């Protein structure tokens, strides 16, 4: 069938697939303005005209408030077409299959464990996901890992207001542990805004359960002192990554086994041939089982990120290493239960080069074979690929 995939709400692209061909559109962007929505509609019409195809089925995200989802429902109804929907992060998991486009490889029996880390996506439980790992295959994913959820106040505003993410973490800790952590005193946020947000958080007004790695990075950037507000989504995490560029700090060398020599066995070179500091065995966040999920508890990060006895740079480095070590440990724990599998990394968080290189090096050291999407973007611009893969497997 000729399939139209309409992507998500942010970093939108669309895709057409028929026979053994797929065409992904140029970047459309955020579907939150009249102009971008007009471009979205225009791109769909022009691609169909250009390739002389007419969609026979449509596939979209699950989120009911995305413009792309609303469009897909309306388009399918008006044209009497079938509408398929796939959960946001399962579409991200399918994106690793752009390394496996030939039918022989895509049908192999080796399962996957795909970490789908991003800022937001509606989960099957109506919570905000973004730190999930899925086990299985493109036609049968099972969520097995995530982080401890927290109550996030502010909804979509939190993406450009990292202080809301950080505040939500602190208030969650104070509630769970009956502690009295205070918000950073040097934040340039009015007392009235903070109090209003806190009262809303306490009374569950405009709050949602969140397990997003992207929002955890936002919170980290605010707690370190890189800014309480952002001009664009991801600004805080980008600044956080930038602090790490010179490598491992003094504190890490105190905590972890010291590496005295650089040689071919313990030096990893980045994609631009830059020599990285060897990755020692790193402590990870505490892991615990909740029902069938292996969750990472982020609680201790808050104290570490607010520890002004360490420089901003050191705290940023320690944060990245701990997050990378946590992913690796989750993979190891799942391997003990499930046996061998391939590891995939998908989602906008893995555009963080410093984090991703730590993860890839650590996974390799533990005997895992890991993959990233090869020809498509890691972030939501690649969602349409995952949606098309889903539609193809449903057809079979």
Estimated helix fraction? 25-40%
Radius of gyration: 21 Å
Q: Provide the succession of SSEs.
A: EEEHEHEHHEEEEHHEHHHEEHHEHEH
Structural class by SSE content: alpha/beta
Which consecutive residue ranges, at least 5 long each, have pLDDT under 50?
A: 248-280
Average pLDDT figure: 88
Topology at a glance:
Blueprint: E1 3-5, E2 15-18, E3 21-24, H1 34-51, E4 57-61, H2 67-78, E5 82-86, H3 88-94, H4 103-106, E6 112-117, E7 128-137, E8 140-147, E9 150-153, H5 162-177, H6 191-202, E10 207-212, H7 213-224, H8 235-242, H9 250-255, E11 287-290, E12 293-296, H10 299-305, H11 312-338, E13 342-346, H12 353-365, E14 370-371, H13 383-395
Parallel strand pairs: 1-4, 4-5, 6-13, 7-10, 8-12, 13-14
Antiparallel strand pairs: 1-2, 2-3, 6-7, 7-8, 9-10, 11-12
Helix pairs in contact: 3-13, 5-6, 5-7, 7-8, 11-12
Describe this structure in words.
The protein is an alpha/beta fold. Helices cover 39% and strands 18% of the residues. The chain is built from 13 helices and 14 strands. Strands 6, 7, 8, 9, 10, 11, 12, 13 and 14 form a 9-stranded mixed β-sheet that branches. Strands 3-2-1-4-5 form a 5-stranded mixed β-sheet, with helices on both faces. Strand 13, helix 12 and strand 14 form a beta-alpha-beta unit. About 8% of the residues have low confidence.
């Amino acid at each position: 069938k000729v399939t139209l995939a309409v992507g998500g709400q942010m970093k939108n692209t669309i895709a057409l697939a028929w026979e053994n061909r797929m065409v992904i559109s140029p970047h459309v962007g955020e579907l939150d303005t009249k102009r971008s929505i007009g471009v979205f509609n225009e791109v769909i019409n022009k691609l169909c005209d250009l390739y002389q195809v007419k969609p026979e089925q449509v596939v979209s995200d699950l989120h009911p408030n995305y413009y792309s989802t609303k469009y897909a429902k309306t388009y399918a109804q008006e044209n009497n077409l079938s509408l398929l929907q796939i959960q946001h992060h399962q579409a991200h998991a399918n994106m690793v299959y752009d390394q496996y486009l030939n039918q022989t490889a895509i049908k192999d029996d080796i399962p996957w464990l795909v970490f789908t880390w991003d800022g937001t996506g509606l989960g099957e439980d109506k919570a905000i996901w973004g730190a999930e790992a899925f086990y299985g295959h493109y036609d049968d994913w099972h969520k097995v890992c995530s982080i401890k959820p927290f109550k996030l106040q502010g909804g979509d505003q939190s993406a450009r207001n990292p202080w809301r993410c950080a505040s939500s973490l602190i208030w969650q800790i104070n509630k769970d542990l009956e502690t009295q952590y205070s918000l950073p005193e040097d934040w340039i946020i009015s007392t009235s805004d903070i109090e209003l947000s806190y009262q809303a958080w306490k009374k569950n007004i405009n709050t949602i359960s969140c397990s997003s790695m992207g929002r955890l990075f936002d919170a980290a950037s605010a707690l370190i002192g890189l800014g309480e507000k952002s001009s664009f989504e991801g600004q805080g995490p980008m600044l956080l990554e930038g602090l790490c560029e010179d490598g491992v700090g003094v504190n890490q060398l105190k905590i972890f086994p010291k590496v005295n020599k650089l040689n071919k066995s313990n030096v990893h070179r980045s994609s631009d041939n830059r020599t990285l500091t060897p990755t020692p065995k790193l402590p990870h966040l505490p892991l615990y089982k909740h029902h069938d999920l292996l969750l990472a508890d982020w609680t201790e990060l808050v104290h570490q990120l607010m520890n002004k006895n360490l420089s901003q740079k050191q705290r940023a480095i320690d944060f990245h290493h701990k997050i990378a070590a946590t992913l690796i440990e989750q993979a190891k724990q799942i391997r003990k239960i499930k046996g061998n599998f391939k590891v995939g990394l998908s989602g906008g968080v893995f555009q963080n080069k410093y984090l991703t290189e730590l993860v890839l090096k650590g996974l390799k050291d533990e005997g895992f074979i890991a993959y990233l999407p090869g020809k498509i973007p890691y972030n939501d611009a690649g969602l349409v690929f995952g949606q098309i893969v889903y539609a193809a497997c449903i057809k079979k």
